[in-house]
Amino acid sequence: MFLIGDSTVKNGRGDGSGGQWGWGSFFDSFFDTSRISVENHALGGRSSRTFFTEGLWNKVLPGLKKGDYVLMQFGHNDGGPLNTGRARASLKGTGEESETVIMESNGGPEEVFTYGHYLRLYIRQAKAVGAIPIVLSPTPGNRWTDGKANRMTNTYTQWAQEVARQEGVEFIDLNAISAEKLDAMGETAGRNLFKDSVHTTEEGAKINGQSVVDGLKKIPDFSLNQYLKK
Q1: Helices marked H in the chain — which ranges?
Q2: Which of 56, 57, 69, 213 is 20 to 30 A away from residue 63, measured at CA?
Q3: What pTM, to 2 d.p., does this model score?
Q4: How many other C-beta atoms lie within 10 A of the C-beta of residue 122?
Q5: From CA 8, how far away is CA 206, in angstroms rounded?
Q6: Is residue 21 over pLDDT 90?
């Protein structure tokens, strides 16, 4: 099983620096690792766009074989400027429109596509080698309204689900599943699971990992579930 995504999946080197953890660092604890291995290839600060343009996906792809699983979770870093500063934004939505920009970093052009386009790229290239992609909505952040955790229902959650449906692959609404857990514990306790506005403590990361597992268990007869610990 391969994990790709941002710092909410793997924070820094995955060693808990600054007390910040991504859920992927503990994800193997939910599985029988004598039967399946978990490789966490996520990297902090990356968006659906820059995980591809920086060559990170091209390091994962050669290792994929038929029957492997690829869990992908992007969205936290897909906003902001297209061509200045960290220049990691994707266009909003799931269409095939694009915009060519001149990159501040090197003065050259780059054609920037939508969030949905980049997800489709990962899905289709994984499927081409016989791997099984699973799309996740982003983790909820430490943002609240009237004591309830904010959702990404109308943006990255919707777009991720739309692409998964179009491509015929499984979707886990990690955003909603974890947000429901935050709501249940209340804002004061929920805020203690974060180190800042997005990044989680060890406990928060483990809760997000459990949410992914909860989502997997909702998928009837899904082959990956045979590897979960009983």
Answers
A1: 50-53, 57-60, 115-128, 156-167, 174-185, 187-191, 202-217
A2: 213
A3: 0.97
A4: 24
A5: 11
A6: yes
